[in-house]
Amino acid sequence: MIELKHIYKSYDKNLVLDDLSLKFAEREMVCLIGEMGSGKSTILRCLAGLVKPDAGEIIFTSGIKPRIGMIFQHFNLFSNLNVLHNLTLAPMRVLGLSAKEAERIALEHLESVGLAHKKDLFPSELSIGQQQRVAMARSLVMNPQVLLLDEPLSALDPIATGEVMNVLRKLKKEITLIMSTHKLNAATELADKIVFLDKGKVCEEGTSEEIFVSPRKEETRRFLSYMKDLHYTIESPLFDRPELNSCIEQYCNRFGLGSQAFRFVELAVEESLNLVPLENGAKLLLSKVENEVRMSLDITVNDMGISYIDEKSCRDDLSLNLLQGICDILEERIKGNKRILHMELNQERLLLK
């Protein structure tokens, strides 16, 4: 249906797409995965016509460009219009439909995403998940044959993720879907084909089993290993705590853990950082055991020859007592010139929704 042939795209001399070739079949669901900056969003923008490649071809095999819709990562709903008017604006102005016909179609699609009862509300009155579903309905009113989705599940809690996933399950039976995502479990369930991008190139493509169970390329294996864990580097005591908390929340959401579990992990991280000196930086590693609701936390700092969990030398008695209460295991490990604070978080608390 659509073929990208030898596409190149640069931004300010930064090569984003490098001789990229890729095919998308009719009514196929394709998930684009890869690190930030690997070219996922740029591919979608090229397909949508929002960005023009520097070189290469975009070929529509039928000879006619299909109707293409796009859902942006930040939804881009009109804040000054209610839900219904967000959906009727384009059909009336672009397609020339009457207000009555545009409203009929809009309500039809709002019903399909379970939000017809929210038609008179404004975007600010909706949850993030509801805003995402409205954005999907707004694209669908234009009757696209291809729908591009840029990280549609990012920043959604487990409930909102489930709501959007339900819509995607229905849509994949009807139209072509091309989605960039960091949610590997969603890609596993939904995708007919998964494309792993690395440095602007297609490194590997195949079914979810081929990519996630038996990847052929070392780059793919390295990416999947990295995605299973949360790595975060702290440069100084003045690091960006809200950013770290956001990373922890997204990591918990990836595995369907609830808000209570996120707050529990957030507490464990905060209290553990109170025990170690951050003047020379620290590295945080949060890992979830595969197929189990078990999580470990490692904080690595320079070894100063002092124990941070010994009651006689610890920096914060209250934080130490809290960690002892919420961890099944709390211990220190020495590796070269590094000291690692290792914790196994209490499993019962992680199961809380």
Describe it for me?
The structure is a single chain. The chain has 353 residues and is of the alpha/beta class. It contains 12 helices and 14 strands. The chain has helices spanning 40-48, 83-93, 99-112, 128-140, 158-171, 184-190, 208-213, 218-227, 241-254, 259-273, 317-326, 347-350; strands at 2-11, 14-24, 29-33, 55-60, 68-71, 146-150, 176-180, 193-198, 201-206, 229-234, 282-288, 295-302, 327-335, 338-345. Strand 6, helix 5 (158-171) and strand 7 (176-180) form a beta-alpha-beta unit. Helix 2 runs parallel beside helix 4 and helix 3 (99-112) crosses helix 4. The protein is globular. The model has no long low-confidence stretch (mean pLDDT 91).
What is the structure about, briefly put?
With 353 residues, the chain is of the alpha/beta class. It is built from 12 helices and 14 strands.
Helix-residue proportion: 25-40%
- The coarse overall form would be globular
H/E element order? EEEHEEHHHEHEHEEHHEHHEEHEEH
How big is the Rg? 23 Å
Terminal CA distance reads 43 Å
Draw up the topology in text.
Elements: E1 2-11, E2 14-24, E3 29-33, H1 40-48, E4 55-60, E5 68-71, H2 83-93, H3 99-112, H4 128-140, E6 146-150, H5 158-171, E7 176-180, H6 184-190, E8 193-198, E9 201-206, H7 208-213, H8 218-227, E10 229-234, H9 241-254, H10 259-273, E11 282-288, E12 295-302, H11 317-326, E13 327-335, E14 338-345, H12 347-350
Parallel strand pairs: 3-7, 3-8, 5-6, 6-7
Antiparallel strand pairs: 1-2, 1-4, 8-9, 10-11, 11-12, 12-14, 13-14
Question: Can you tag this structure with a few keywords?
Answer:
single chain, 353 residues, alpha/beta, six-stranded mixed β-sheet, five-stranded antiparallel β-sheet, 12 helices, 14 strands, 36% helix, globular
